[in-house]
Amino acid sequence: MRYIPHTDADRKEMLQTIGVSTIDELFEQIPGNLRVSGPLNIPESLDEHALLVELRKIGSANRSTSDLISFLGAGVYEHYVPSIVMELISRGEFLSAYTPYQPEVSQGYLQTIYEFQTMICEITGMEVANASMYDGATALSEAVIMASGLKHRSRILVAREVHPHYVQCVQTFARSVECQVEIVDTDKLVDTLDDTTACVAFQYPDFFGRAFNPRSLIDAAHRSGALAIAISDPVALGVLEPPGSFGADVVVGDCQSLGIPMGFGGPHAGYFAVKRELVRAIPGRIVGATHDSQGRRGFVMTLRTREQDIRREKATSNICTNQALMALCATVWMSALGKSGFRKVAETCAQNAHYAASQLCRIPGIRLRFPESPFVFEFVIDCGMNATQVRDKLMPEGFLAGAPLGKWFPDLQSCLLVAVTEVRTRDEIDRFVTEFAKVVS
Fold first, then answer.
1. Are the C-beta atoms of 402 and 419 separated by less than 8 Å?
2. Relative to the CA of 348, which of 56, 70, 234, 252 has its CA 20 to 30 Å away?
3. 307: containing domain
4. How far is CA 81 from CA 16, 77, 261, 423, 429, in A?
């Protein structure tokens, strides 16, 4: 967006248009003790060129994967994005890629949403998926609220090994609907379930990268009358049996690993997939395929939660849209790779990660924190010293080592969550291990 400041004349005209004479009059309903008096403590304004120079200077302070070899994961991963993705989503037809409010005139765009939904169902093993959510955390939060409303229960169980940001988001959402969120170790969830539980949410693979068989947990949830909600990274499902095959009622997650750039944490898109019987309870919208009066294939906005528009007091969600452009990004990426390419990415991630883990564990004093648990492309290593210090010492050497876990899990101060995707080469991994050994020696 170009830098086009308002002139004094512009401001005067806007004030006159809305019927006030001064800025102070515009904000007079705000109590005086809450308003800043006098000039703000900020620098003088800059012209366009000087402003761009200053912004570039500020931006250069960021370290990114363009100048660091990244082993960082924890929910945001560096995957290769083929040039076709940005080329297609940048076409003029998609420049206003937002909610189609007159949907049937946007046939091409409706088809991309339909294809997104279809591929999410194939990946997760579920029957229905919506047009996308804001991100994985809000998808999970909407899922637990949906479960509470369907079951008329207020007790929500969330595994301790779910991403901490997702847990925080669930806790925030739950307060507004008076639900009680309980954080429980995954291996204790079965014993904690009872007939007051609305749902149990678990991550597969979990936040530590560990893969496990969730069937017994899902079966126990169903016996107690609760919904089973799985959170899954879609790329990991390229080599794992999908949650739908175990009987999960809802599968949610983030689409960032499906061709969406890391972007310093966003924007991303969430996915939301369910069993068919839950289709009328899910948030957001669903695009379906049909035929017109002449037999031509077409696409329609099949379901959407109109309560948000016309019966707000009955709304079960504040989501009445979708993260359209990011979902399109994921759709193009999945289409470009195809089924075999998608599986190849997952397999390469797994191979690289297991090679990196084996090499790191050859360093004296370094060990896997959960050696008994299989993993796909993310794992936890115990550094034998403060993991944050290890990460910080490796950054000047050109490596983003991973996510120190101590800030979320006080008992894991010496542990580092390491992710290795298909973009990491054997040479990069070997150099990382060499520098890692120097830091911890």
1. yes
2. 252
3. 83-333
4. 49, 11, 7, 10, 20
